[in-house]
Amino acid sequence: MAIPAEGETIQIHSYKHNGRIHRVWQETTVLKGTNNIVIGANERTLVTESDGRTWLTREPSICYFHAEHWFNIICMLRDDGVYYYCNISSPFVYNNGSLKYIDYDLDVKVFPDMSYTLLDEDEYEDHKRQMGYPEVTDQILYRNVEKLIGWIKQRRGPFAPDFIEVWTDRYEFHRENRIR
């Protein structure tokens, strides 16, 4: 698998289990790219939905993707703190300038005080029936919900106290160098 280079601008493509495109983020700056982890950042990036509608993200975000875990984490930097939107998803793949994953509907929203809520269980059950998610996939996804909640409680990965500062500083470095 190719690895995106630090400073490179990539797209993020979210698919559904049936192979259909779900959502595309037009530009994300890579802050770290390895075989297992991609950390990126974007701000006011164009997002295109599967039905063709478009919108701009509202705030700067740090995005964390892992090639072995079945979730990704979007850290949204707002005036009143960092909010985390965690997608239960397939591990990512990267090719042709795009990071790609399958979105499995379940989401965990984490608030600045590290309280959290599991979202979209009804949508997950509907899509599980419609698209025929295999039982093994269902088990993997719920195990990864538990793993993700463990990370939140233990302040691991993007939930660690210094994560946001380190990666927002790196994003500022790349933005300043791009402007010059």
TrEMBL record:
Domain DUF402: 18-156
List of residues binding Mg(2+) 2: 105, 107, 120, 123
Lineage: Bacteria, Bacillati, Bacillota, Bacilli, Bacillales
Organism for this UniProt entry: Metaplanococcus flavidus
Uppermost EC category: hydrolase
Similarity field: Belongs to the Ntdp family.
Active-site residues, as the UniProt record annotates them: 23
The enzyme's E.C. designation: 3.6.1.15, 3.6.1.6
Swiss-Prot/TrEMBL keywords: Hydrolase, Magnesium, Metal-binding
Residues at which Mg(2+) 1 binds: 87, 103, 107
Catalytic activities: a ribonucleoside 5'-diphosphate + H2O = a ribonucleoside 5'-phosphate + phosphate + H(+); a ribonucleoside 5'-triphosphate + H2O = a ribonucleoside 5'-diphosphate + phosphate + H(+)
UniProt-listed Pfam families: DUF402
Record's protein name: Nucleoside triphosphate/diphosphate phosphatase
Function: Has nucleoside phosphatase activity towards nucleoside triphosphates and nucleoside diphosphates.
Swiss-Prot/TrEMBL cofactor(s): Mg(2+)
